[in-house]
Specification:
The chain has 195 residues and is of the alpha+beta class. It has one domain. 36% of the residues lie in helices and 17% in strands. Strands 1, 2, 3, 4 and 5 form a 5-stranded mixed beta sheet that branches. The longest helix has 71 residues. The model has no long low-confidence stretch (mean pLDDT 82).
Length: 195
């Protein structure tokens, strides 16, 4: 008769250890699911960063391509207009009809500019022969705006009452690029001066 209570006590202990083991397994499973969720979120963040970096590199390449385009193909006599024909635009600040919109950048939608209209943009490599930019959804595009003549040539100071010997021309280049996904967009601008 003494053995009977021991077997009941052992059975009770085995039941408690089963419940404890199940609770620990459930806690471990919950922790594993949480870690997997964090890992999935980090992978999405890394993919987004990588795609943005790709679009940034494409936009920078488009700026360099546009600078080469200006140096080789654009002169002060080149025709620039308000409708950005062939990607050659009159800056908004020099358009008489804009009024309060005169200070907005050329890619502002209120100006009626559209990056999808091929007649209003220049494509990467179109005028320089550069190879296509790899791994992007669409090739980078850019527009060139002509500013007025610059006051003094490089290395000279302005002298009151004297005209500069060889004034230069300033151009604002706006480049737009997309990454591997079409929703990843980077727009960059630079000022390029010729003498």
């Amino acid at each position: 008769m003494r053995n009977a209570p021991r077997s009941l006590a052992g059975a009770g202990q085995r039941g408690i250890s089963l419940v404890t083991t199940l609770v620990l397994m459930l806690a471990t499973l919950s922790l594993g699911v949480a870690v997997m969720g964090v890992n999935a979120m980090e992978e999405r963040m890394i993919a987004n960063t990588k795609d943005r970096d790709l679009a940034l590199q494409a936009a920078e390449a488009a700026l360099r391509d546009a600078e080469q385009d200006v140096a080789s193909n654009v002169s002060p006599a080149t025709a620039f207009n308000d409708t950005c024909t062939n990607g050659l635009c009159t800056p908004p600040s020099q358009r008489d009809s804009l009024g309060p919109l005169a200070s907005v950048p050329v890619d502002d939608a209120r100006l009626g500019f559209d990056w999808t209209v091929d007649a209003n943009v220049r494509r990467y490599g179109q005028y320089t022969g550069a190879a296509q930019f790899p791994s992007v959804t669409a090739q980078p595009r850019y527009v060139i705006e002509k500013f007025s003549f610059l006051g003094t040539p490089a290395g000279e100071s302005v002298v009151l009452g004297a005209e500069p010997v060889a004034p230069g021309v300033g151009y604002r280049i706006t480049a737009r690029a997309v990454g591997a996904r079409p929703e990843t967009v980077v727009v960059l601008q630079s000022i390029y001066a010729t003498r």
